[in-house]
Each structure stands twice: as structure tokens, then as C-alpha cells.
Amino acid sequence: MLLQIVKKDFQRNKIITIVLLIFMMLSALLAACASQVIMELSGSLSNLLDKSKAPHFVQMHAGPIDNAGIQKFASTNPLVKNQQTVEMLRIDGSNVVLGNNNKSEENSVMDIGFVRQNPSFDLLLNLENQVIRVSEGEIAVPIYYKKENNLNIGDQVTLSNGQLDKKFIVTDFVRDIQMNPAIVSSKRFVVNDTDYNALKKNHGEVEYLIEFQITDLSRLSEFRNTYQSSDMPGKGPMIDYPLFKTLNALTDGIIAVVIILVSILLLIIATLCLRFTMIATLEEDYREIGVMKAIGISQQDIRRIYLAKYMVMAACASLLGYLLSLGVVRLFTANITLYLGTAPKTILQPIVPVLAVGLIFGMIMFFCRVILRRFNRITVVEALRSGTVGELKGNTGTIVLSKYKHINVNVFLGLKDVYGRLTMFGLLFFVFVICLFIILVPVNLLNTLQSPRFISYMGVGQSDMRIDLQQSDQIEKRFNELITTLNKDPDIAKFSPLITSRFKVLGSDGVWENINVETGDFSIFPLTYVNGGTPESGDEIALSDLNAKEWNKRVGDSVLLEVNGASKKLTVSGIYQDITNGGRTAKARLPYDPKSVLWYIVALDVNPNVSVQGKMDQYAKLFYPAKVTHLESYLSQTLGNTIRQLKLVTGLSIAISISISVLITALFLKMLLAKDASQIAILRSIGFTLEDIRKQYQVRLLLVSGLGIILGTFSANTIGQKFAQLLGSFMGASNIQFVVNPVVAYLILPLFFMLIVALTTVVSTISMKKSKISKLIVE
């Protein structure tokens, strides 16, 4: 019986039922996809951490080390479970050619390191998550290059520096728990011990990774403070286990959150459409409901009949959405599978998507029950007498045409109808708002990541290029030579030398910690500060957002640093955002000890008519092995993977949103034309042409869509902005500001959206030609 009721209702309202099914299905589909992405990401990351025996604390160090001192520290610290010191041979990109490409990696932002397989932990794995073993003449290449350079097994990697030319055959690709993500600008290539020793004699300089596994991860901060307060090596970035997890999950985690957002918005649209459809159905069946009540059918039984229809519809849509997700989800998990591998399936992995779809189904049924409460207000007498629920009547005030003689009659009648039925058109208005929100938030987020201004969230000012000098022999002499050359170069418009050194700072728990402080003139290439501004004197310091939160510091508070062996109180002048070096950096104008310098950076702008690429090539050769970087290419190389994934989601969001706007406009007009049939007949009988009536409907729909576009744009720039800041807070950039392309966001997309609505209106109102006036009047 239930299926017969559903079948008859479907035959009576085919288009309405199909549209509702599509909305419910899409919401269930995306909810299932997002939950599967999260489960896949969580499982694969946990499996990679386990298989690689990830270190818990890593201190990178450039320069000589005391192995005996490290061993003594490890043996006397009860928290240390395992310790190893890993050599990494840094190779300049200009000496490396990957595959059949004739170009070297000279312009790559990645620091290339050659290593041997580690003995006990921090294991480098292949695409099957097995420990990599390579023979002489073989090499395992990071996955990043497989994707960026389209490398395959059997391709060659060539090293050449004039002293030793060496060719390797690619036999594997490396999953590296430390350096997997594109946002990490260092990559490790694995070679055989014999090859490594030969390269060490002729190529590059050695950098050390001092790695620890500890007995209790909950005491990681305690161990970090102990290490930093000791005299252990520390000329380089410090990274730890939580940061490994965050960086590896970042790209796909962001995509999952965006998919969840779109799914929730689709559910809201489905609910709004469901409410409108159910109210319209109740109005259509109002007399029948009165008759059923009159013959003794209980109110609860009547409600069950109507609820059953939507229960079957929601169940079919949810099931179909889940089944489709099994194929569609591969689009979103392909990146996880490549970078993290596939984890053994657990019982939760198939269950969680089912629960997500079940939640969508449950929410739809809950809203149906809420809407059907209006049965309580229906009386037999009123239903049989009036035959209408009176829900969609809207405003009853009168607007007189004679007062608005300057307005076209068709425009006036269209505006008047919108005013008279605000409740009905309000539904369409909110659907348009949500549709534009679904389009603009991913578009604005994508535009922000691709903008050169995004570099400000990496703790550096915007400039044409930068030159990095890492730790090496006579680094200070090379730095001074670089400054002298820049001062004499007429092609350089301006430049700013920036020196990063290691200082001691008194943490919030009263323990002295290490902090990387960049010194220099920060007014030349200024940062964008969340609060406050640039440190202008030697008594001020600017903190990164994560440092400020960790130490609970605000602008105007004081920080105690150890400078030249003495404690010095500095006032916090500003707080900026930084997603590099774990997001924990600072900037101040302090005297520095050359022995404590970690690295030198020079940011510079060239004159307007000078080629940036030409100047980069010149300085790369002149100051070899300095790394010369074009900041725009830096963003594309480090965030390229995230941008590609976000482009996929953005394209999907636009397609879904446009499809929704077409379907809901067509559905709405079908209902409206059926409801207004007698009114249309009257208008035609008094001389209005079909074209006039069509214009009236276009005015209605364009007015509602125009207002929806305005509020949707405002919501995307406010609520959507907060959403972006929530995502950014995981990276140390909790105050990300959308970089909006005004032509696209405020002109092209809104006009395209209105054009779609206008075309749908024209197509949907063609059916009026088939109507006979006499028939309409009789009805």
C-alpha cells in the first residue's frame, strides 16, 4: 500500500519528486565522500606513521656536531627511547636533472638532500609502504617529483658538478613521513651506501637530522624544553610528531572540510525545497485531508501516510548517494593513496560513511515531522469550506499602480507579486543565497592561495625574489660579498638583508627555550600584521601568531630574551601570521652573534624593466650554491598540490550550484504557473500577451536572484571569511583575508548566475503557450 501511495504521488509530481531526490542524493553523496576522505586520511596517516616508525622530535643542524655529547644526552635522559643522527647530503638543484628533462632543478624551491636508508626508525618507504632498499646505481625519488615532473620507474636522475658526473636509475618512489608534503621545502632522495660515500666526497655539504623517539608522547613538550635548554646542536629548524601529522593531513583535511561545508549547505537547500513542496502538497490536498478527518481517520494516521512518502524518498536518495560515493570518492582519495598509501581496512571505515548518510536521512525525517505538525491546526470545517491552507498567501497590502506611473506595467506587476508573496519567494531567495555562497567561498579561497599576497602568511614580505644562504663554510664572508654586489647593481630597486639567529627565551612555564629570531629592517618589505606593527627599535619584538598564543602574549606585553649573555626585556610590538618553520618565529632588531646564525636571507625587488628570471639566473651562478627563489613560483611549488585539489572541489561546487539554481528555478516556476493558471487566463483575457506575462515572471525571478546574489556575496565575504580563518588557524594563519578578484566575484559569476536564472525562466514559461484561455478560466 505504501509503495502504491508513493508511486501515485511520483506520477502526479514527477519533476518535483526527481528534483528533491537529486538534492537529497547530492547531500548524502558529499557527506559520504567527506566521511570516507576523513577515515581514509586518518587510517593512511596512522599506518604511515607506524610503518615508518616516525621520530617524535627532530632537530636539523648545519655544522659540526659532537656525537659523543648527543649520545650522552640520550643515555642520561629517561624520556629517550631511541636516538639516531642522520646525515643528509645537500645537493644544489643546478646540479640535478630529473628524467628526460634537459633543465636542472636550479629554479626549484625545494632543498634536495641525498640520504641512506635509516637503520632503526624514520624509515623511508616505497609505494607499497615497504622499507626501501636500493643497489648501486639506483635511486628512490620523493613522490613530489613523481607528480610534479611526471617521473616513472626506469627514468634517470643525473648529478653533475664538473667534478663527478653520476647517473642513477629510478627504482622506487619515497614516502617520507617528515618531508612528504609539498609545503615542506626539503626532499630526501635515497641512494645506496656506496653511492652516498662517493657523492659525499664530491658533492654538496652535510646537514644532520638529530632524531629522537621518546617513551611518553604526552611529555613531548617537556622533552623539547629539556633539549632546547641544553647545549645540544640547534642550527636549523626543529620539528616534532604533531607537526608531522598536521603537515601530512593539511591538504586533504582542508578538502574534506570544504566538502562537508558544501554537503551541509545542500542539506539546507533540500530542507527548504522539502518544506515548500510539502506545504504546496498540503494545500493541494487540503479538502482531501478534511474529508479523511471527517470520516474518522485519525490525525496521526494521516500524518503517517504523508511521512511515509518522504521516508521512502529520503531512503532511496540516501542509498543512491551512498552507492555513488563508492565511485566518486576516488577522485578525492587519489592524493591520499599516492602520498600516504592505503591502510588495512578497519571495521569503522565502511561504517562511518553509512552513519554519515544515516545522519542525513535522520535530519530529513526530523524536518518532515516538524513540517507535518501543521496537521494539528487543520479543522474539518475550515478544510471543507475554504479548501486552502492559506500558508503561502503572504502580504495582503495593496499597491496602487496609479502611484507609480513611471514604472513599466509588467515590471510593476512582477514587483507587486514578489511583495505580495514574500514567504513563497523567500524560499527561492535563500536558495539563491546558498547557491552563490557555495560558488564564491571555494573560488575566493582558491584565489587567495594563488595570489602573490599569500606569501605574507609565510612570515615574509612581498618581493620579487629572495636569496637564501644556508650554513656552509665562510657563510658570513659570502653574505657580505652578496650585500656589496647588490649595493653596486643598478638593476636592483631595493633589498633587505635578514639574518635568522637562535636565541633563548623564557617560556610561559618558566623554562628557557630556543626561538628563531629574524633581525633586519622590516620596513622595506613589510608584513601584514594581525595586531600591532613592525618592531622599530631594539627593545621591541614581533611574534608569530602561534608563538603569541602559546605564550599567551598580546601587543604591549613583555618577553624576556637572552641577548649577548644577559637577559633583555622586549615589548611585543606586533603579531603576524607565519606557516613556515612550524609557525613559531619572531622578528626583532637585535645584535647577533655570527656563531648563532642559522641562515641569511636577502629579499629584493628589481627595477621595472629588468627581467626577474634573468636576474635570478645571474645571481644563482654568481653566488652558487645560494638558493635564488622567485616568490610567485615558491607558492605554486609548495601549495601546488593543495591548489590542484581545491580546483577540483571548486569546479564541483560551481557545477552543483548552477545545477541547483536551474532545477530549483524550473521547479519553482512549474509550481507557480500551476498555482497562477487562473490569474494568467485573466491577464490574457484583458489583453496581456504571452510575452508580457513572461516578462513579469522574469522580473520576479531576476529580482529575487539579484537580492540573493547581494546577500550571498556578503555572506561569502563574512561567514566564508571566518571559515577560511578556521582552516588557516591549523597552519598558524588564523586571520587569513580573502584575496577577491572583483571582476570574477562581483561581475562575471553574478551575471552568469542571473543569466542562468533568466534562461531557465524563459524555457520554463514556454509551457504557457500550450494553455487555452477558455480552459484556464473554466478551471
Summary?
The chain crosses the membrane at residues 253-274, 310-331, 351-372, 425-446, 648-669, 701-723, 743-766. The chain has 779 residues and is an alpha+beta fold.
Describe the model.
This protein has 779 residues and is α+β, with helices and mostly antiparallel strands. The protein has four domains: 1-60 and 241-388, no CATH class; 84-215, no CATH class; 409-454 and 640-778, no CATH class; 471-625, no CATH class. It has a ten-stranded mixed β-sheet with strand order 3-6-7-5-8-4-2-9-1-10. The protein has a six-stranded mixed beta barrel with strand order 12-13-18-15-17-16. Strand 16 (558-563) and strand 17 (566-576) form a beta hairpin. The model is unreliable at 383-396 and 775-779 (pLDDT under 50).
